[in-house]
Design brief:
- It is a single chain.
- Helix content is about 45%, strand content about 10%.
- By secondary structure, it is mostly helical.
- It has a three-stranded antiparallel β-sheet, with no helix packed on it.
- This is Mos1 transposase HTH domain-containing protein.
- GO terms for molecular function: nucleic acid binding.
- InterPro entries: Mos1_HTH, RNaseH_sf, Transposase-MT_Hybrid, Transposase_1.
- It comes from Araneus ventricosus (Orbweaver spider).
Length: about 220
């Protein structure tokens, strides 16, 4: 028993016509055989004859002519030009690139940037201090001195190292909204707790802490 195939792709139907025509079947026989599987409305008999004539004329592909001749959007030359534009401005936007390359859509540009060139947007990382070259040289010199002392004195030298830090703290630190959370039943009749918004105290003091390898002094 034959099984019907509904809504076949155009290229599939044309490929079957090409195969049966290569076997030696004529257009009428091809249309009759394919109608049993694809249904009477899969293609008119005149179009089947037209495709048979095309294959006799030397046509080998089964896609539409427009799709066959269409050039790929993201050519290697275009990808290279997009890469050069990005290297010239690392803070680019897709809208800005679209102004530079009006011949290509924004979605295609995004595909080139994210998939072909494998770029991703990263935020700047915050650091405590911006060290100059002089500061870096001083820190490297201090680290080398510590290493030399450690190789000479061993763990005894580590007991002599004391580190300190200082920061300004408020006299009164208000409870945060996260800290004021309470566990309650969702169906509880109790009122939801409220918290007044308050500003931090303007009075501050300097807190200084020193510690060694064993803990806070």
């Amino acid at each position: 028993m034959l099984r019907k195939i509904e809504s076949p792709a155009k290229c599939e139907v044309r490929s079957v016509i090409q195969f049966l025509h290569a076997e030696g079947s004529n257009a009428d026989e091809i249309h009759r055989r394919m109608s049993k599987v694809y249904g009477e409305t899969f293609m008119s008999d005149s179009k089947v004859r037209k495709w048979c004539r095309n294959f006799d004329a030397g046509r080998t592909h089964v896609n539409d002519a427009g799709g066959q001749e269409r050039k790929p959007v993201s050519t290697d030359d275009l990808v290279q030009r997009v890469d050069q534009a990005i290297r010239g401005n690392r803070r680019f936007t897709i809208s800005g690139l679209s102004d530079l390359f009006p011949e290509i859509s924004r979605s295609a540009l995004y595909t080139i940037v994210s998939e072909r060139l494998v770029y991703r947007k990263l935020c700047a990382r915050w650091v405590p201090k911006m060290l100059s070259d002089h500061h870096k040289t001083q820190r490297m010199g201090a680290a080398l001195t510590f290493l030399q002392r450690y190789h000479h004195d061993g763990d005894v030298f580590l007991d002599k190292i004391v580190t300190g830090d200082e920061t300004w703290v408020h006299y009164e630190t208000e409870e945060t909204k996260e800290q004021s959370k309470q566990w309650m039943h969702s169906h509880s009749s109790s009122r939801k707790p409220v918290k007044f918004k308050r500003t931090f105290s303007t009075k501050m003091c300097m807190a200084t802490v020193f510690w060694d390898r064993k803990g806070v002094l």
